[in-house]
């Protein structure tokens, strides 16, 4: 599906379902930082954001899924009250009906992988790559083979010839 506007331009927005990307601990001194064991989603805000995007002509939404979905391939990753795959598919259908193309985001950067739980400590192992492969395959199916897929890794440019750090 491609919902490019009449100017062939993408106007996209990023929505986070998951917030467990960066830190593995809960800090009593910094209430908005640290691992969050429960899905922290305002349904009203989610719906308002999607509706406003449609009204403003946004044609793409990148959805950071992380541990906010109870994947069939790896349910052990999910936070409490994570969306089922059925619920995610319902939301994707609603988003598409509003003329917005949903794009999945799973961040596999070693600096943003707390959502992978124990697998985040297995980087570069056969197990890690199997989990990544399973999740990418499942999410690709859930999103009906999306035209784009954000896998993270955008911070991984240090030392690569020709790529400058911003």
Please give a quick description of this structure.
With 166 residues, the chain is an alpha/beta fold. The protein has helices at 43-56, 85-97, 126-142; strands at 12-16, 60-64, 69-70, 83-84, 101-105. The protein is 27% helix and 11% strand.
Q: What is the topological layout?
A:
Elements (H helix, E strand, L loop, with lengths): L11 E5 L26 H14 L3 E5 L4 E2 L12 E2 H13 L3 E5 L20 H17 L24
Parallel strand pairs: 1-2, 2-5, 3-4
Largest sheet: 3 strands, parallel
User: What is the tally of helical segments?
Assistant: 3
Helix share, percent: 25-40%
Please count the beta strands (DSSP E, at least 2 residues each).
Answer: 5
Beta-strand percentage? Answer: 5-15%
Task: Provide keyphrases for this structure.
166 residues, alpha/beta, globular, two-stranded parallel sheet, 27% helix, three-stranded parallel beta sheet
Any overview of this molecule?
With 166 residues, this protein is of the alpha/beta class. Helix content is 27%, strand content 11%. It has helices at residues 43-56, 85-97, 126-142; strands spanning 12-16, 60-64, 69-70, 83-84, 101-105. Strands 1-2-5 form a three-stranded parallel beta sheet. The chain has a two-stranded parallel ribbon with strand order 3-4. Helix 1 (43-56) links the parallel strand 1 and strand 2. The chain is globular and about 45 Å long. The two termini are 32 Å apart. The mean pLDDT is 87.
């Amino acid at each position: 599906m491609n919902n490019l506007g009449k100017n062939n331009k993408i106007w996209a927005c990023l929505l986070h379902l998951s917030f467990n990307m960066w830190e593995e601990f809960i800090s009593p001194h910094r209430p908005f930082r640290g691992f969050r064991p429960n899905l922290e989603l305002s349904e009203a805000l989610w719906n308002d954001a999607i509706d406003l995007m449609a009204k403003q002509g946004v044609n793409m939404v990148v959805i950071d899924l992380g541990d906010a979905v109870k994947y069939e391939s790896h349910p052990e990753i999910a936070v409490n009250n994570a969306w089922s795959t059925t619920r995610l598919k319902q939301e994707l259908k609603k988003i598409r009906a509003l003329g917005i193309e949903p794009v999945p985001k799973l961040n596999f950067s070693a600096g943003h992988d707390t959502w992978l739980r124990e697998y985040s400590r297995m980087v570069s192992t056969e197990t890690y790559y199997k989990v990544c492969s399973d999740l990418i395959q499942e999410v690709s199916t859930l999103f009906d083979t999306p035209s784009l897929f954000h896998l993270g890794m955008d911070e991984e440019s240090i030392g690569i010839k020709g790529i400058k750090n911003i």
